[in-house]
Amino acid sequence: QDQRWKQQLVALSGVQPGQRVLMHLENCPELLITYFACAHIGAICVPTNAMAAGPELTYMAELTEAVGAITQPRFAAKLAIHCPDLAWLAITSSDAGVPCEPGTAPSASDSFDALRVHTPAPLRAPDASQPLSILFTSGTTSRPKGVLWTHANALWAARLGATQQGFRANDIVQVFLPLFHVVGLSWSVLPTLWAGATVVLQPKFSVTHYWPTAMQYRSTVGSHVIFSGNVLAGQPVPAGHAFRQWCNALSLPQHEAVFGVKVQGAWGMTEMVAQGIVGDLWAPQRPGSIGRPSVGYGIRIENDRGDACRPGETGSLLVKGVPGVSIFAEYFRNPQATRDAFDEEGYFRTGDSVTLHDDGSIQFSDRNKDLIKVGGEGVSAAEVERVIAGVEGVAQVAVVSRPDASLGEVAVAYVIPRSGDAAPAGLEARITDTCRQDLAKFKVPRAVYFVEDFPRISVGKISKVKLREMARATVVDPREEQPARV
Hints:
Blueprint: H1 6-11, E1 20-24, H2 29-41, E2 44-47, H3 54-64, E3 68-71, H4 73-82, E4 88-91, E5 94-95, E6 98-99, E7 131-137, E8 145-150, H5 151-164, E9 172-175, H6 182-195, E10 198-201, H7 210-217, E11 221-223, H8 226-233, E12 245-248, H9 253-259, E13 262-267, E14 277-278, E15 292-293, E16 298-302, E17 314-320, E18 330-331, H10 335-340, E19 348-356, E20 362-367, E21 371-374, E22 377-380, H11 381-389, E23 394-404, E24 408-417, H12 427-438, E25 447-450, H13 464-472
Parallel strand pairs: 1-2, 1-3, 3-4, 9-10, 9-11, 11-12, 12-13, 24-25
Antiparallel strand pairs: 5-6, 7-8, 8-18, 13-14, 14-15, 16-17, 17-19, 19-20, 21-22, 23-24
Helix pairs in contact: 3-4, 5-6
């Protein structure tokens, strides 16, 4: 049946091998159909964050020079306004399974359903080195980088993920994590297909719908982030569920006890494609650890002098793999960033700090401080700073993380105003409004603090360590905290 969709991407839209197609969608069957249709004809699919703001979509469309896009009704107007150079726009009939709002239904010519045909697309000579998709990662730069995967990358993630997670052909794998991120796509869906198992796809995380869906379909495997696991841990767990294992960022014995499942800890990132460090399902995993080095990856943990860490020490995590196979091929149209990402021996600098234990297991320690993790979403402090720095009246800005009871972390901004006043009239509102317009909701700072100067280290560089301490001091008891403004 999927064959019906492939040829028409060529015939109706003029998509040719090597061209890019945006997929601005929540989790839905149309996203996966498009992903594999593009792969079949040799086009490159670009899944974008469903929460992205209009200017963020403009940047992604322009960087990739996308020829067209597939989206859902409630996002169609945003794409039409902010991506005017797209040659075509195909719109699904629903918002990830939810009936669309009145007046937003696509016309016959714009409908995703119009892509159905019966003529099979011509076969191409197999070439696993060809580009497959571009996923955007925040990292620590002022603009997200496009991480280019090849067909070999997807095959590697599918096979390795199915093997080390022990997927079985009769598994029912429940997926709510977004397919525009690595855990939802290459840790979950691709290994499921490799194993011949079944995917139960949810549009997004919903504490209301998670357990009813799991019970209805008798889900056996799931993937989580710390945020979703913690939320569910505060809810009743239905007796008789069929889950046997979950994958999460850490091995969490407390979650194993609450949910009655094996929780496999693992670590990876978009550039790693698959899980570069993972727990062994068939052996005890050290509580709180992310596991041990996975097959096909070289792991190095080094101290500030560049020497390999010994057990008990904490250092910077570097990973070595085969570009275009076990790790990403390149940052799309950014060769300098690609070169800078690797050291002289070909190890990728992850920006994460980890601790090596005596038993060979690895524990996550900290991430590069300019990457803020908001409810599982990565936020680049530099990206938020770039937006705020463009607001009239802002002289300097520094963005750091602040602990948050529900989301783990949120972003907060410290601003030196041009006027020198402690709190210029209207400036906070202008900053917040600009961030809401230009950034996805989860990137918008939760608070803006005006200061006369930043704490600095001896060379005059802003001390973000001190700023984070200042931010932590503003945290109040969740019971007293005011409703979130973003």
